[in-house]
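[job 4417] fold queue: 2 targets
>>> target A
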Amino acid sequence: MVGLSRSSTVVINLAPRSEANDGFCSVYRTLDDDCLSHQLHHRWGIFGLPGEVTRLLGRASPIAMIVAALGMAVIVACITEVGSQFSDPGGAYLYVRTVFGRFIGIQIGWFNLLVLTSVIGALANLFVNYLGTFLPWPVNTWERGSLMAILIAIPAAANYFGVRSGANLSNVMTLAKLASYSAWRALSISRR
């Protein structure tokens, strides 16, 4: 995927070699990957983390956020450098497998799955927490669990019907979020 533009298309063949021409392939663009990354990783950092840091540190929270950003910049630079050495897909699993062997690589792959699962659960919990502040009644355990299950079931159902529908849902959600950010920003600027 080196050298592809943001609007490029990558075709992932899901069929055995003998059936490669039967149309069993899924189209997944690099734009879809960007939107999915934004959806999963940036929500907690945008909505949940700043409020919690402010609650814990008070006026020192901006300094803590800047220090954390500098630390993350070092980590991102290291991952970018390592990623530039590989042309195959696989991310951290591929990097660790190449250096430390298959067993440690599989452990990193499982750890990535654990992290993604935890992030999805934490985001669903955060959404229900915020939604509870707008509801006129307190959210009980059953309502909370049902809301979280629905939030997780919608993208799961979209992905069940194929990578293309899951990627389209991610793109629509990202565009809706960016549109709401833009509208909020324009409204706040016009109020000044």
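>>> target B
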Amino acid sequence: MAGCGRQCYITRMTREPEAPLPGYVVYDPIDPFENGAGPFFWRRDEGGDHFVFRAEPGHCNTFGVVHGGLLMTLADLTMAATSKERREDAYITVSFNGEFVAPGLEGMLIESRGELVKRTASMAFVRGRIEADGNTLFVYSGVMKRLRR
């Protein structure tokens, strides 16, 4: 899709892919990077924002392991969503910390859940973990800055 631009991505996502779990939707159907990397499926429940995706060959490196950059992208998206009071709020990452704990493999259902540690008028402090099959793959924390619109 080189040279296609944002409109091609918007058009491409007019038919939402099938979610790996019932009740989940693509978090942002017009975000070209997240949907090219994922797509990542989301729902908000009593535990907060929960993201999932099924690891496919395109998510993995040559060793069949889910690419670390993809896990970092999922963590960043989870932190942004967890920071929000309202869905239309916008946050950018100021600080990001993460540790790889175990590998994710092709075919696994990868899940991410964040925890809001504190929110001020302009900042949010978030931490979370990415898991598969009950095993922690990646732990993360960060500071998010609220954008004024």
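[job 4417] complete. Note on B: Residues 1-12 have pLDDT under 50 and may be disordered.
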